[in-house]
Structures are given as structure tokens and as C-alpha cells.
Amino acid sequence: MGLGVEPYPYGLLTLIVSLEAILLSGLILSSQNRQGEYDTNLLKKDLKVSNETNESVDEVLEKVEELKIMLQKKGGESK
Questions:
Q1: What distance in Å separates the CA atoms of residue 39 and residue 43, rounded to the nearest whole number?
Q2: Alpha-carbon torsion 58, 59, 60, 62, what sign?
Q3: Separation CA 40–CA 33 (nearest Å)
Q4: Residue 57 — very low, low, confident or very high, per pLDDT cuts 50/70/90?
Q5: What are the extents of the domains in the chain?
Q6: What is the reported pLDDT for 60?
Q7: What is this structure's pTM?
Q8: Under a CB-based contact definition with an 8 Å cutoff, are residues 53 and 45 in contact?
Q9: 22: enclosing H helix or E strand
Q10: 3-state secondary structure 30-53
């Protein structure tokens, strides 16, 4: 221990475990990047659907207001 030299199997095992950790961390980072891209695309699709829904609701509200005005005019004419 004083010289920093370990007996044969421990040095090799340390090297193997270190290489495994390096490879696994690279794999984890790349999978996180792919997941991030997937999440970004999913959010973009959700935003598009939400915007389309809002536009449709706005159109329906305009038509309801038009119908309301038409009914008020017809109600005023019948009196």
C-alpha cells in the first residue's frame, strides 16, 4: 500500500470495473439524450394539438354568439 502497487488480481479488477463504469456512463448519457429528444417531440405535438383545439373552441364560441344574436333578433321581432 505504501508504494501504491497492489497485488495482481486487484489491479486488474480495478481496471475492469473502471472501464465498465466508463462504458455504462456513456450508455446512460446517450439514452438520456434520446429520451430528451423524444420528450421534446412529444411536447411539440401536444402543443400543436392544444393550439388546434383552442382554435376549434374559439370557432364554436363565435358561432354560438352568432346564434345567440340571431335568436335575440327573432325574439324581438315576434313581440
A1: 6
A2: positive
A3: 11
A4: very high
A5: 19-79
A6: 97
A7: 0.56
A8: no
A9: helix 8-78
A10: HHHHHHHHHHHHHHHHHHHHHHHH
C-alpha cell belonging to residue 9: 488480481
Query: pLDDT value at position 6?
Result: 66
43's grid cell: 411536447
Confidence of residue 63 (pLDDT cuts 50, 70, 90): very high
Distance CA 52, CA 65 (A): 20
Cell of 4: 501504491
**Interval 50-59 mean pLDDT:** 97
**pLDDT of 1 higher than 50:** no
Residue with cell 495482481: 8
Half-sphere exposure of 13 (CA within 13 A, CB side): 5
Give the separation between CA 28 and CA 18, rounded to whole angstroms: 15
